[in-house]
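Q: Structure for this?
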Amino acid sequence: MTVLEAIGLNKSFGGVHAVSDVSFSVDRGEMLAMIGPNGAGKSTCFNLVGGQLRPDAGRVRLAGQDITGQPPGLLARLGVARTFQIATVFASMTVRENVQVALQAHHRRSWRFWRAADTGFRQSSLSLLAKVDMDGQAGRAAGVLAYGDLKRLELAVALASNPRLLLMDEPTAGMAAEERTALMALVRRLAHGSGLAVLFTEHDMDVVFGLADRILVLNRGELIAVGGAAAIRADARVREVYLGSGATGGGY
Amino acid sequence: MKLTRRTLLAGSATLAAPAIARSQSEPIRIGEINSYTAVPAFTLPYRQGWQLAVEQVNATGGVLGRKLEVISRDDAGRPQDAVRIAGELVGEQKVDLLAGGFLSNVGLAISDFALQNKRLYVASEPLTDALVWEKGHRYCFRLRPSTYMQAAMLVGEAAKLKAKRWVSVAPNYEYGTSTVKWFKQLLAQQRPDVTFVDEQLPALGRIDAGATVAALAAAKPEAILNVTFGPDLTNFVRQGNTRGLFEGRSVVSVLTGEPEYLEPLGDETPTGWLVTGYPVDSVTDPANTAFIAAYKAKFNETPKMGSVVGHALISSIVAGLQKAGSTGTEALCDALPGASFDTPFGWAMWRAIDHQSTLGTYVGHTALKDGHGTMVDWRYVNGADALPSDDVVRKLRPA
Amino acid sequence: MDAFLIQLLTGLAGASSLFLVAAGLTVIFGVTRVVNFSHGSLFMLGAFIAWSVLTRLPREPGWHVAGVLIAALATAGIGALLEMGLLRRIYRAPELLQLLATFGVVLMVQDLALLIWGPNDLSLPRPPWLRGFVRIAEQQFPLYDLILIGIAPLMLVALWLLFTHTRWGTLVRAATQDRDMLAALGVDQRLLFTSVFALGAGLAGLGGALALPDGSANLQMDMSVITDAFVVVVVGGMGSLPGAYLAALLIALLQTFGIVLLPKATLVLMFVVMASVLVVRPHGLLGRAQVPTRGEAHAYALIRPATPALRTLGAAALALALAAPLLVGPFWLSVLTEALIAMLFAASLHAMMGPGGMISFGHAAWFGIGAYAAALAARGLAVPMPVGLLLGPLLAGVVALAFGWFVVRLSGIYLAMLTLAFAQIVWAVVFQSDITGGDNGVLGVWPDAWARDPRVFYLVALVLCVGGTLALRRVLFSPFGYALRAARDAPERAEAIGLFPTGLRMAAFCLAGTAAGLAGAVGAYSKGSVFPSTISIGRSVDALLMVLLGGVQTMAGPVVGALAYTGLYDVLIRATDLWRLVLGAAIVALVLAFPQGIAGAASRVVRDDAA
Ligand SMILES: Nc1ncnc2c1ncn2[C@@H]1O[C@H](COP(=O)(O)OP(=O)(O)OP(=O)(O)O)[C@@H](O)[C@H]1O
Ligand SMILES: [Mg+2]
């Protein structure tokens, strides 16, 4: 079953055609990787799908429903969750409170003015944190976490809404190699286990080729290849892009 | 604790026995509030004025056998602060009466406090008519000639001008708008043929003088009523001079003859304006000269209008104290109406009908002397002659 | 037609004056991000110094120019000292702390100028060439105004060249984008900032010196100039010099032509222009979205519920406050009442400013609306006090909801200035309307007979103000409070988890307005009168000072700040003529000692002990 469908997406910033005519889809339980050199338009794609940007042309469908240009707040309620390339968490809260806020939002409890927030969703937040191995740091201030921990917390926050589509823009940047694989393996388990559809970008090709079910390759805003790991490895244009671009991306 | 005990004791003492019961050595205390930091150009000379008066009163043995003491506070130009300070002066400092005020709304705030707490308040400078008329009451008295009086003093001569097309410029607040209102009304009574063709209301302290002058000139008036003062006036006069606004036009200008406002105009003082003010350099009567000499001796500068008001404030209070023979509020409020007192401008009294004093001011024309602005052809106008008839006052003052 | 030409030229001259006032402020903000409240004071110092210099020099044009330049240089020197002695130490402090520090400077300069130059307006005797005029359309137009018309564009070009065609300018622009990068390149950033601040101060001084021949150096200049400067800078887009000129042009021309048609509009015209521009262009005419400069301290502190120690302290303070009627007399009760009102007022501002992330320069509007609603209901409709106390917050909340719709779409200083514009518009309406009694205010708003005893009224105020403050606190720790804080900490992330920041901010704005309205209503009954000055900029600044002094990043901040500020103010204003000097110095000292605010510092100490 197709969860996300992007059809003919276009986006320009002034003169820069950041995304041109990109179409793809993600199925239930699928891990779809989007790769491409710096500036290829990956983050822009994520923002178009996640509602942060409105496409100049093209449509986005979520489980068949047109969600083009809908605000992120609404998409979240429809089951879209995401992490950002530069991890953002709520710095004035503890790790646990970060997840609690997300749980509250998901359960539509954010407009309650009287009862202390601290007491709500304590257990479920801790178990979400345990999933990403952050429960040990539940009481720490989110603002002082190491970057890798920040990324994991962000994932826990994203998962709090029990999404059907998870968009992850460079979820492992700043982590050590083993950590990366471990985290993405966890995501893969979630995807395959609960049917979560995952679209992610990643510069670590070991992660991409090891864990993605399918791979999209973007270059200068254009989709140049789609397919399984083997097919992408063999694709001439992909090789050209990665070699020709001086192999800057993520040390590749 | 201690404070409440003292309050209670003091209270019961006043109730039980006349004021004589208080120690003879204890001074009579006047709680004085003014905008010392907000309007220093006027209030600092004013402070020196009352300081001189207090010194003079105490040098001659004080009042009712007791020394006079003024406890002075800054209200920072905020009516709300003034109310708190009034509370402190009454509750903590145990003053016998309140006095002071420069800004109209500060005066009204203290006046309302006085009414509520049944304390005497002698307003020195606030000009708003509401203080003695619309919102006047038993416990409030006002010394200076009000906006109505300032307008009335000028209107007689203004009516003799040939001009029919008038314009006005006034700061955009109570003092400005109400002076213009009275002036127009009084002028219309004598000169129905006069029309006001433009009315500029620059924000106080922020006049856009060029634009204001241009707008007035565009209205092609024959005469101008000016109510601006202070920095606004300086800006207005300079633009007006350079742009020739005043050439061939009569100008009537309120307060401009007061030294504090005339001085900054310097050699650019326009000549021939009909103004109210204080010709401090040319008065010759004994009351004035004695005052000026004493003031110069003490402070090494010539007095300003504020100094006169400060000095007269003390005399006017002393007159009430002497007439009442006590410092009790009710006794004072009974005694002040009709009490007369001497001021640097001569004899004045507190009117019974509206608690306005009859202290007047000088009306004359501006002129230049040795590169400084001054007043010529002046005459003193008694405040009593610039007030409406008793019937009118009764209508204006409900209480 | 002739009149039109003259008005046009007059407007151009006015635009030049406004630009001269604003240029320095926008330069300083553009680079250092310091919201320099003392800009008006520097302008005033420029005028006073120019007076002192020019009255001692020959009157020829050449000497005059030299004197003006000396004044500008001297002001630049003062600016450099200010930067090195004060601002440099707090660049990494939370946002807006510099505003508090520079406000301390404003207070100090007011008294220092009074001490040095005396209370009188000082006007510069104009030599004949400064009185000259040219005949245009059969009217006299001042020569000096023509010179001014030329000076502003010249300065604009000169500054533009300085920033784009010199090495210094390149470095300054680099510093605006990425401070860490610059440090990595080995550029002494401190020197750069000092020089920028000196330049801005020098421009302010130049503005003051150039304004002198048109009027006088006087002690009210600082305050009248500072709002003009802020409005021009914000309308133009903060940091944009061409924007500032454009804004000056727009405002001055509207002013010149506007007062002919609508003389009463002088009070608000500028603010109406600002509000309209900001609603249409949220970053001013030529401004760009304010991206946080890399290397800028922007971490929000962790907010924790009160520790047991703090709770005990709070309970003890409350018990003491409850016992106050037994301990002190009516005056001290009135002082305490005022402190309570200030506390709720500050707490309401803190709610939108801290957790809400919306700075307000116009918070007095809600206080004032609450006060007027209560006062007018009491006087006009003769409603009993409890009804008045209910109507105040209600009306403030409703109006806040209406204004909030425009306000919450903006951010940062622009948002703050839009609140200021709204507050000024409310102020002008109240000031000029007959219903509100205009300048003379509403009098005789005294409590009902049962509450007239100062002790009873004090207890009423205590219940309402402490209750209001605690209720706000409770809301900030509720799910809503967390959601609001989430929207401030990371708006994108908040949206991504299904929150709607605009709505949350709107609710916070309305809540803050309501609470401030309650403070205002209590204030009206406690003072017995309400005046337009309750809505003045000074009142808004008071609230800001209290919050910043206590610490924006802590929940106890506004309470501590309000008590400290009202306490200091009340003691000083009664103790010394030079209270502004002492209060200003105290603020500066507190800022330097506790950049996180008093409560912020205290909570650090407590937490370090615990750790
Ligand atoms: N808000 C924006 N305004 C202007 N240009 C933008 C904006 N966002 C992205 N771009 C441009 O669009 C192009 C694509 O950027 P995008 O961030 O999508 O690339 P990316 O593939 O995510 O790169 P990276 O691997 O570095 O994250 C780039 O040239 C970028 O400069
Ligand atoms: Mg990217």
